[in-house]
Amino acid sequence: MSVDSLKNYFEPLFEHLDKQLAENGEVAGFGPGFEEEVAKAYIALDGPYEREASVLCNKASVAEFEYETDLLNITKEEAATAASIAYSQFELKAFDDFISQFEYENFEDADLKRQLKFLSAIGTSALDDTDLKRYNEVLSEMSKIYGTAKVCSYYKQDCDLETEGFALEPELTAKFSKMENYEELKYLWKAWRDATGPKMRKLYMEYVELGNKAARST
Ligand SMILES: *[C@@H]1O[C@H](CO)[C@@H](O)[C@H](O)[C@H]1NC(C)=O
């Protein structure tokens, strides 16, 4: 994005700043202090970035929660993936159009510099649409495996998983945090890994691959 389109976007702000500078007897221009003011206005709490980011982030979190608490519902899974992708796409666009345009290393305001540094770390939002979709699917598949796997009790190892099995939440988490019987803990841990690990192996490799791809592209 060029300085011109930045200027168009912030025309009202520029007018305001120009007027202030003129009143103080200073010459208006697109100097470093000016760029800093633009960046500050862009990420301000009532600014354009925050307005959109907070809505999309909230939608993605709510959809994720809906899915995580109902892991077998395909509709919720798709909704969570879609909401996460929408948020990532916004982050990438904000980064390309604005955040990456600011030479914030030269800014005076330490808080602003820190905020822009964080906003520059867009992670997997840098992936293209196909990879981004796949990345979100992989994550949601792994959540499902993790969240729905069941294991039998140490005391009834041939139980009916469907009706008697322990899931990670709440039974296993509670047991792992409180139980002190070594043999029982070892059994449960192994049973849990056996029920999840082999199913996640390929997905996890894909997850790492896509994460690395994102890291290389930013
Ligand atoms: C999945 O969730 C949607 C939205 O809450 C709901 O309408 C639908 O009935 C659910 N489907 C199943 C199979 O539970």
UniProtKB/TrEMBL annotation:
Coiled coil: none annotated. GO terms for molecular function: metallopeptidase activity; peptidyl-dipeptidase activity. Keywords: Disulfide bond, Glycoprotein, Signal. GO terms for cellular component: plasma membrane. The keyword Disulfide bond applies. One of its GO terms (biological process) is proteolysis. PROSITE patterns: PEPTIDASE_M2 (PS52011). The keyword Disulfide bond applies. Glycans are attached at residue 73. Pfam families: Peptidase_M2. Belongs to the peptidase M2 family. This is Uncharacterized protein. It comes from Allacma fusca. The lineage of its organism: Eukaryota, Metazoa, Ecdysozoa, Arthropoda, Hexapoda.
